[in-house]
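3.2 Worked example (two chains)
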Amino acid sequence: MVQKAKILLVDDRPENLLALEAILSALDQTLVRASSGEEALKALLTDDFAVILLDVQMPGMDGFETAAHIKRRERTRDIPIIFLTAINHGPHHTFRGYAAGAVDYISKPFDPWVLRAKVSVFVELYMKNCQLREQASLLRLQLENGGHSGRTGVLEPQEPAGLLAELSARLAAVEEQAEALSKQLDESADAAAVATAAHLERKLTGLRRALDALEPGAGSGASPVPSQS
């Protein structure tokens, strides 16, 4: 059963949070509210998020300061941040948003369809990354135990050749999905999303290389499986 991705919505105005929930509800993911930068940072301590929608103008800790804290934490530094602002102070203000680590900077009022489309891209990339980590974890577990997980989740004996073939097929399915996503992103020309997709493809390439090294005749030793963080 596929677990839903979590999307963090940060805005000090309840009506803005309600509007964001209405726009993003069609994605059928888990939407988490935060009414301040402090509340957002607290939520990020325990949960993993696919993307953060962060209001710039907030009392106390504003969006720029909140983003700076997010990017300083190892656990959260790679989470995409989309800044939302009702005030446009020109290129300098926009540059400050990107300098703070945002992948996008959207001025209100915005097109609901465009915002939903942008968020859906990062949700899909997040899901692909989760799937990749699960495949890597399964590979390590099966190689350590010399078996594979059946439908019950219990490791069952399997010949190495059959195990490698099964893992290769599973990885191929992820590779195919990642390739289709990359083609879709090439058409959208969203530089930040394209860069994230390229990072995912590099991870897939490393995992494929490690798996190929385990094939008979590939060499005397197996390459270590790359860390999927």
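3.2.1 Second chain
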Amino acid sequence: MMVSSPFGGGRAPQGLPRLPTPPTGWPIGSYATYGEAQQAVDFLADSEFSVSDVTIVGVDLMLVERVIGKLSWGRVLGTGAVSGAWFGLFAGLLLGLFVNQGFALQLLTGLVLGVLSGLMFAAIGYSMSRGRRDFSSASQLVAGRYDVLCQPRSAEQGRELLAKLALKPPPATP
């Protein structure tokens, strides 16, 4: 499946609009987590249901930022040095492949320059924050609930199948 941009480039899969449009269909199920909604659609697929009529819609979207830890100069510079080292090794590897002088020297030069530039960019970025953001975090877009919608032509059949899924006992946990 190819994701297309609303500004062109690429083709949308058969039957899907090229521009962002609200979902259509009748609700056949509502779930607290994306995993449960995904499991419901998987159950429909396993039951030979036409899942091309189904859409999972996240409702009541929220951005959740989970704080991972406190930032310090040591952590910032260490992370900058490591990320710069990886980039420098890659650049040194490319140079070593295309330049006929000492492969190891090119690799070492790339590593040193990568570490130095990683340190420099990390220090500049952290100092510009002036202590306003002394923590690292990971952001995630989540929904309050996930509705499963289905086109009207097969919505009733989808509801019946999902009612059977709801009656199934949950799998045993080890």
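3.3 Remarks
Residues 1-7 have pLDDT under 50 and may be disordered.
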